[in-house]
Every structure is written in C-alpha cells, then in structure tokens.
Design a protein that fits this description.
The structure holds 2 protein chains of 2 kinds. Chain A is mainly beta. Chain A is 0% helix and 55% strand. In chain A, the strands form 2 sheets. In chain A, strands 2, 4, 5, 6, 9, 10 and 11 form a 7-stranded mixed beta sheet that branches. Chain A has a 4-stranded antiparallel beta sheet with strand order 1-3-8-7, with no helix packed on it. In chain A, a hairpin with a 2-residue loop joins strand 5 and strand 6. Chain A is globular, with a radius of gyration of 13 Å. In chain B, the strands form 3 sheets. In chain B, strands 2, 5, 6, 10, 11 and 12 form a 6-stranded mixed beta sheet that branches. In chain B, a hairpin with a 2-residue loop joins strand 7 and strand 8. Classes of the chains: A mainly beta, B mainly beta. At the A-B interface, strand 5, strand 9 and strand 10 of A face strand 5, strand 6 and strand 11 of B.
Chain lengths: 114, 120
Amino acid sequence: DAGVIQSPRHEVTEMGQEVTLRCKPISGHDYLFWYRQTMMRGLELLIYFNNNVPIDDSGMPEDRFSAKMPNASFSTLKIQPSEPRDSAVYFCASNLPGQRNTIYFGEGSWLTVV
Amino acid sequence: AQKITQTQPGMFVQEKEAVTLDCTYDTSDPSYGLFWYKQPSSGEMIFLIYQGSYDQQNATEGRYSLNFQKARKSANLVISASQLGDSAMYFCAMREGLFPMDTGRRALTFGSGTRLQVQP
C-alpha cells in the first residue's frame, strides 16, 4: 500500500515567493495533519483536518500560512510570502478512523527560503 | 507546561546491548495514547510502537518494548540487541482524549527527541 505522499521533497526558494507543499494521505484515512520541524522548536502541529474540514488551525504561525483540503485525497499548505524563518521540514500525516494507535507520516518536504 | 519530556538529548550504546530511552508525560485526561517514532538521518518519521492508557500489558513490537509506568507517567522505550541501523532520533509523543468517545483531539504532541548512536 502506498504511504503518505508529499511533494516536493526539497525546495529552495527566494524570500517573498509563494511556496506550495502538497500531500496525498493514505487512501481511506479521514484525518490529515500538517507538522513543521525545526531545530529550535522541534515538531509542531500546524493544522489538522477531519473529513476535509479544518478542525484545529491554532498552530498556523500567521496569515502567511494557509492550508486546504479540497478532497479526501489531497491537501496543500501554502506560504505566501515566504520568509527565511519558514525554512523547515514540513510533514504531512494521516490516520484511519478506529485505528487510534497509528498515525503515518510522509517523508517530509524540506523547505529552504533564502 | 511541557506535555512530553525527553531528558536525554543524546545516548550512546554498544551494538547488541539494550538501551532505554526515557519519556515522561503530563496529562489530566484519563484516556490517552503514547507513541514512539524513529527519525533516521534521511528524515522520515517511522512509527515504532503504541501504548494506550488503559492497556494492561506493556506494548512490544519485535526488539522494541514500551515500559509503561502509569503512576509515574513514564513511557520509556527499550530497544533490545541494538543494531547499527538503530542510530537515529527517537521521539516520544502523546495523543489525548481517545476514550470512550474520541473527543477530536487527535493530534500528537511530541517531545524534543533523543539522538541514539549505536557504536560497533
């Protein structure tokens, strides 16, 4: 079975540019999470969705960040405009209802803003 | 207050020996789950093991076992017979509000991690 798929794996962009990160959850999973990992702050939850509806976006750092889930198989995380402090690894993860003990992560998108 | 505390930034272990990675947690919710993930240098997050707060027995998955001490609020990971491939960052995480009805607090809260290095 395919796992959580994220793209791009690596991105280098200039400050001020728009960045779009993409995620395809595992088929049938109804929860989708976006996490950010930095050396300073560790792993932080940004936002999560249930059945395509955002449930908790309190971790989204500011208005420059937005996330959408237009359907059950696709989500995007956008940063506009990007800043150097946004450089991090962004992980997407998904979870199947009834399997409370399993949350599977994608391989991450490594973002560098210069 | 920190919900998940991993007090060992780094650990060394000899190949073939066992190692314990510490994790303590803080919650007032009676129903929660505890997770361990491995993050090798390649960066992916690999799920290792899960322990539910109402589980009577300690979880085991191959060479991984979770030493769950509920009264002490600790959930230490034990890796037996360490291998060179076990060298990685290890994260403890918690998820609250799982039983009897999922309250929707489905997100994981992570600790700061422990970097394990297995020496030949």
